[in-house]
Design brief:
mainly alpha; globular; 17 helices; 75% helix; 2 domains
């Protein structure tokens, strides 16, 4: 990632840490804020300690987050990192995940379903600009799907209803985002530009990044599959034909969530596909241009942190018996909602992508350093070596 991107991330981490510090201080001193926190879905730490202790830990975590953010900012600008930076980053990240309010996965699911819909519409428009005939066909198909959905819902604007519902949860979403943003930006700051010293773990991730990314992408398939069965006479995992007839919004919402999950899996594959490094040719105005490294890395790492927190919460809720699942249904639940696996593998995939792109950048730098008077044969051999290193 570029210096500017790393600087922005460090400043965002400092801002998020400051927000957490202020909220924790208010939680300790203002009864109304403490009562509001008590009404939120509890985080993992709130399940084992009282509100006052959790607020105090949040205050200390926020202050530590500000310090780590400042150190990461100095590191991005070339200063030497203290030996304890790695330990501090891990401690703050774990603490933030434990402090993060619960119930974020359902909200994130609806948010990403709407985002995926927006991505598809934007992609269709870019395709229509570059290839009008094909683009018109795709846009026509999207309009047809929208018309069918509107008829099924008797004209009810489902996206508008979802946006309104999310708007009502905005304060809770903002608090959760502050926690997730701090955790994600600290991890991204620790990764650096992908060229920092690589230990044994980093080298293993880089060598196996394709397999790791495929595993992460496949985590989207179970949920997308069970939601797709809602279109058949044999709906699975909560589907019921009678319910769909009485409440068509339930069917459309489930299909939207399944589509959003499937899109997340496809985008995950972009971390190892050529279109994850260069925008597809059919993207009008962007086709063929390099994808900024920070775009997929930041997005993937943020979602990774979200999934890790959500996956841990799901496991705790199952252990507490909140889902009232039969013993044989627990495994089914963990397979359909594999955030416990998707979160860590997506984070590793993003790390591997960052190191891979940094390696490509090093090859380009080496190519630029070739002396112009090195001779035709010498220069040609160097070009061949560089091409072979790229293909490898």
């Amino acid at each position: 990632m570029e210096l500017r991107t790393r600087t922005i991330l460090s400043l965002l981490a400092a801002l998020s840490a400051a927000v957490i510090t202020a909220l924790s201080l208010l939680r300790l001193t203002v009864p109304a804020v403490a009562d509001w926190y008590a009404g939120m879905p509890p985080g993992l730490l709130d399940r084992v300690v009282d509100g006052g202790a959790a607020a105090l830990i949040g205050l200390l975590t926020g202050v530590a987050g500000v310090v780590v953010s400042i150190v990461l900012l100095a590191r991005a600008r070339g200063a030497e990192s203290p030996a304890a930076l790695g330990v501090m980053s891990v401690v703050v990240t774990v603490a933030v995940l434990l402090l993060s309010p619960g119930g974020i996965i359902p909200v994130a699911g609806y948010t990403f379903a709407l985002t995926a819909l927006g991505i598809v519409i934007a992609g269709a428009l870019l395709l229509a600009i570059r290839h009008p005939l094909v683009g018109i066909v795709v846009i026509g198909a999207l309009v047809a799907v929208g018309v069918v959905a509107a008829i099924t819902l008797d004209g009810a604007p489902l996206p508008a209803m979802l946006v309104t519902s999310l708007g009502e949860q905005l304060p809770r979403i903002a608090v959760t985002l502050a926690h997730l943003a701090l955790a994600a930006t600290i991890v991204l700051g620790a990764i650096g530009d992908g060229r920092d010293g690589r230990g044994r773990v980093a080298r293993w991730v880089l060598a196996h990044r394709t397999a790791i990314t495929v595993v992460a992408a496949c985590c989207a398939l179970p949920y997308a599959f069970v939601r797709a069965t809602w279109l058949t006479p044999w709906p699975l995992f909560g589907g019921d034909r009678g319910e769909f007839t009485a409440h068509p919004d339930m069917l459309i919402t489930g299909l939207m969530l399944g589509f959003g999950m499937l899109m997340a899996g496809v985008l995950t594959l972009g971390l190892v596909r050529p279109w994850g490094e260069r925008f597809p040719r059919w993207f009008a105005g962007l086709g063929g241009r390099p994808v900024p490294v920070g775009l997929p890395v930041i997005a993937a790492m943020t979602v990774s942190v979200l999934f890790i927190a959500g996956g841990a919460e799901f496991i705790v809720q199952i252990a507490e018996g909140q889902f009232t699942l039969a013993p044989e249904a627990v495994l089914e639940f963990l397979v359909v909602f594999p955030f416990w696996l998707w979160g860590p593998t997506l984070g590793l995939a993003a790390w591997g992508y960052a190191m891979h792109r940094a390696g490509r950048g090093a090859v380009v730098d080496a190519e630029a350093d070739v002396a112009p008077d090195a001779g035709f044969c010498s220069h040609g051999l160097h070009e061949l070596e560089l091409r072979e290193s790229r293909e490898a």
